[in-house]
Every structure is written in C-alpha cells, then in structure tokens.
Design brief:
Layout: H1 7-17, H2 19-25, H3 34-43, H4 47-55, E1 61-63, H5 64-68, H6 84-99, E2 111-113, H7 133-153, E3 165-173, H8 178-186, E4 193-202, H9 207-216, E5 224-227, H10 235-244, E6 252-254, H11 267-281, E7 288-290, H12 300-304, E8 313-315, H13 323-331, E9 340-342, H14 348-351, H15 353-363, E10 369-371, H16 382-389, E11 397-399, H17 407-417, E12 425-427, H18 445-448, H19 453-469, E13 476-478, H20 487-491, H21 493-518
Helix pairs in contact: 1-3, 2-4, 3-4, 4-6, 6-7, 7-8, 10-11, 13-15, 17-19
Length: 519
C-alpha cells in the first residue's frame, strides 16, 4: 500500500530532485522547512542535498530517528533505511558543519541523536548498500579524528573551538575497529563532536581491550550493554566489571554464552554470584536481561531476587533451568511485567508444564514476544499450548523452531494463531514428517537441511493459506533454519568467521601439543 504524501512533501521532493538547484537555493529556504527537505532527500537518496542540509542545520538538535519517523507530511517511517549513501552524507555534513566558515553565533546545534536508526534484514533503498551499526561507529570515529587533524593544520575561526556537539550513538566495537574507536574516545575532550555512547555492543574482542574501551565510553550514560560473541567474560570478570564500574542508567544487559557455569561452583563462586545479583539490584533502571547459554541450574533466584525493578525482557534460553528455577520465575514479581520471554532449549512439557503455564498466565496481559525453540513441544502438547496462549492477546511474535511437530499439528496451531489480534511474526519449525523417519531432536546442524524441501514448501503454502483465509495477510510466517536475523552478526560475519577459525586452530595446536607430550 502506497503511503500518502502531503502536497508539501511532494513539493519538497520536487525541490530536492534537482540536487544542483536545491543546493544553490538552500540559503533562501525557511528554517522550518529543513526537516521536511531532509526526509524528502533521504527518501530520494540525494546525498549531496542531505550533506548541505546537515552542514547548515539551523536548530539546536538533530534527531535522525524523529526526522525519518512518521510525520504529518509523509507517514512512512524511514528510520529502518540505513542507506549508506544517505548516512555517509549525513555524517560528513556534520563534520563540515563544524568547519563551515559562517560565523559561529549562527551555529545552534548542540545534540545529534543517531540512536533511532533500526538495522533490518530487507533494505528498500535503491543503492541497496547499508551502513550498519559497526560501520557507523567506524565512520564517526574516523571523522572525529579527521576533524581534529584538520583543525590543527589550518587557521580556523577561533569560535570553531567553542563548538561542542554531543553525538548520541550506539557503538559497536570489535577487534577490527577497536584502535580507531579508542583513539577517538581518548581525544573526545578536544573534538567539537563529542561521541556519547548510549548503547555499547562488543564482539570478537580480547577481555583486556573490552575493559579498557568500556571505561572510555563514560558508563554513567550507558543504557544498553551487549557483550555477545567471542568475548571471554566469565563470572569473576563480570564481578570485577560491576565492582569497578557503575552503570546507573543501564536498562538492558546481554551477557555472552558460558558467563555462568554452576556445574563447577565452589563456595567462592556462590558468593560471587550473590554479589553480582546485588550489583544488578543497584541498577534501578534494569528491565532487560539476557543470559543465554549459561548453566544456571537452581541459581535463578540468587541472581534475580535482588532486582528491585521488574524485568520486561528475560532471555534464559539454554540455561539448564530446573523446577525450582521455573517456580521462582512463575511466582516472582517479574512474571506480571514480562513483555518478551525466551525459554528455548528447555524440555518444558516433561520438566515443568504446570509452572510454565502459570508463568505464561501471569505475563499474558503484557507478553509481546515469546520464544520456545527446541523445547520438545510435540503434537500431544498443542492443545495445552493453545490453552496457554489464548489469554496472550498482545502477542506480536511467536518463535518455536526446532520442535518435533507434524504438518497436521502446525495447521491446527496456525488456525488458532489467526485469532491473536496483534500477531505479526511467526517462526515455525520444518514439520517432523518432512524429515526422514527416526530423526532425533534437537536436530544437529548437519541434519538440519536434510528434509523433503518440496513437501515443506507444500505445507508452508497451506499454512499461509490458513492465514490468508482468516484475513491475516499482516502475519509473516517463516522458517529461518539457522535462527532469526541478527544485523550485528550479518555485518561482521567475516570477522566472526575468521575469529572462529583462529580459535579452532589454536585449540587443535594445544591438543596436538598435549598428544606430543604424552607420546
């Protein structure tokens, strides 16, 4: 469906479509038209016009998310278009805003907010080249350093050094851009463009480097911290981090796999876990927690009970939770506030069906996202699952990949899912009857793609027909075999792959050395 444009927006498009004319005429354009022209230029990918608009920005703030979001003149939200042409022009325009010779008293810009950009799988911009979070981190750091060199090398208007603009950004640091980001953060106090890190993600980074860069970001401003792949942050390091750095505004925390492992717990580890729980309790803004692929059997209460603010998002996938853990979650004050819950990798029907449904019942009035992948949900459990999901009228996303369900059970479930009014996205498993007889669950990666693709396509067509007949074309149903799309992993997958190969090689070398010693 084409989004309606106001006459003002159509006029703005016409104005910016001739880039040369638009750039020459900007000086006579009323300031209140700049936001309109910015969105029109972004839609048409007019990089040169975007650059000049930002270079001459007349307001005190420049919020990309708001400028590209739903507006009266054009309702379509463009904040998910992380177009490389547009964003590069935007950031270079910001650098040139500082260098522009116009007298400094005209310069009002104080805050630039880049945090509203959303990285998505499908890009609609014509250039089809995206500038993800990692690349935005890289470019901003580079431009800040270039700006400093430029200011040192040429005679600038003395007022240029009085310019101070906070640039709010979600930083993404890996081994490959670490040196550049650190250099930019160290020089922050001298640069007119001040990098202000609101959210921080780290992948493929040595622990020592992670500790160093996180201290440079000014953790007192941090709202989101994600330590995800190949950062060897274990429990003792996490305790060290929380003891040495305060995160007063932290709302969201994601920890890497194997941060906790209770199977080898000592009395010291128990004390350490209790201390981490207490430190998290001091983070009064914390409402989102992800501790997937840690072993937390019987320790969820110790970790979560000190929290004073109820969690809205909890990811405890593949954490080997037992009955006591599930009972704590179902009865805790978090249950009534959970908007997103991931319990993947737990044998729910066999281990704790009643406590799980109690938890679901408590969170049903607010639950928006539910993930139950590899939970051994079989055909015999579908009716019970439907009963549990029925009150979840606000559910928008339901992911249940990797469960041994037949085509028939999936059709039954889809007929019910049509009744959930807010549902937008469903990720369903390849039906069990599409795999060879005797397949065991959870299915290993080698066997994951060995199914009857023709039969699967036929079933998928039938499931989409169920949605269509119920007038639910708004629901997207898919089977992403290797998990949901992760923009950050997609952007840095070459580096991630190289890191994994290097780790594998090191492990093999250690193993070979051990064998040689033995022989």
């Amino acid at each position: 469906r084409a989004t309606m444009k106001s006459l003002r927006f159509i006029s703005a498009e016409a104005f910016v479509s001739n880039a040369e004319f638009a750039r020459k005429s900007l000086g006579s354009v009323a300031h209140n038209l700049f936001p309109l022209l910015f969105k029109a230029s972004y839609l048409l990918e007019k990089g040169e016009v975007i650059h000049d608009l930002v270079e001459n920005w007349p307001f005190a703030d420049f919020n990309v998310g708001k400028l590209l979001g739903t507006t009266v003149d054009y309702e379509e939200d463009l904040s998910h278009r992380t177009c490389s042409v547009c964003l590069e022009s935007c950031l270079k325009g910001l650098r040139d805003y500082v260098l522009n010779y116009s007298s400094p008293y005209v310069k009002r810009l104080k805050v630039v907010d880049l945090t509203g950009l959303k990285d998505v799988e499908v890009q609609f911009c014509e250039c089809k080249k995206t500038m993800g979070r990692w690349a935005r981190t890289q470019l901003l750091s580079k431009l800040c350093l270039e700006l400093l060199v430029y200011l040192q090398q040429r005679q600038c208007n003395p007022g240029t050094f009085d310019i101070s603009i906070d640039v709010l950004i979600d930083l993404f640091v890996t081994e490959r851009n670490y040196e550049l980001v650190v250099h930019a953060l160290l020089k922050k106090c001298y640069c007119p463009l001040k990098i202000c890190c609101v959210a921080f993600r780290s992948d493929n980074l040595a622990l020592q480097k992670f500790f160093y860069v996180i201290k440079l970001t000014d953790p007192s401003l941090l709202r989101k911290l994600e330590v995800v792949h190949n950062v060897r942050l274990e429990m003792e390091h996490l305790e060290m981090l929380f003891n040495s750095i305060h995160f007063p505004l932290l709302m969201s925390l994601t920890l890497p796999p194997r941060t906790f492992n209770v199977r080898r717990f000592t009395a010291t580890d128990e004390r350490m876990l209790a201390n981490i729980g207490e430190k998290m309790g001091e983070m009064t803004q914390l409402t989102e927690l992800s501790v997937s692929f840690s072993i937390l059997t019987g320790r969820i209460q110790k970790l979560l009970s000190p929290l004073k603010t109820p969690l809205k998002m909890l990811d405890v996938s593949n954490c080997s939770l037992n009955r006591a853990d599930m009972a704590f979650l179902a009865n805790s004050f978090h249950a009534n506030h959970l908007e997103a819950l991931d319990l993947s990798g737990h044998n729910i029907p066999d281990l704790y069906p009643s406590t799980f449904f109690k938890l679901l019942s408590h969170s049903s009035s607010v639950l928006r996202i539910l993930t139950l992948e590899d939970c051994n949900i079989q055909d015999t459990h579908v009716n019970m699952l439907i009963l549990g999901l029925s009150p979840c009228q606000k559910l928008q996303e339901f992911r249940f990949l990797g469960n041994p369900l037949s085509s028939q059970a999936l059709k039954h479930l889809f007929t019910f899912l049509c009744e959930l009014p807010m549902l937008k996205n469903v990720e369903f498993p390849v039906p069990r009857d599409c795999y060879p007889i005797g397949i065991t669950y959870p299915i290993d990666d080698a066997s994951l793609c060995r199914f009857d693709h023709q039969k699967y396509e036929s079933v998928a067509e039938e499931l989409n027909l169920i949605l269509l007949q119920a007038n639910r074309e708004d629901v997207k149903a898919s089977t992403p075999l290797f998990g949901s799309y992760d923009a950050a992993v997609q952007e840095t997958n070459n580096e991630l792959g190289a890191y994994l190969i290097k780790s594998f090689k090191e492990t093999l070398e250690k193993f070979t050395a051990s064998l040689n010693k033995m022989s």
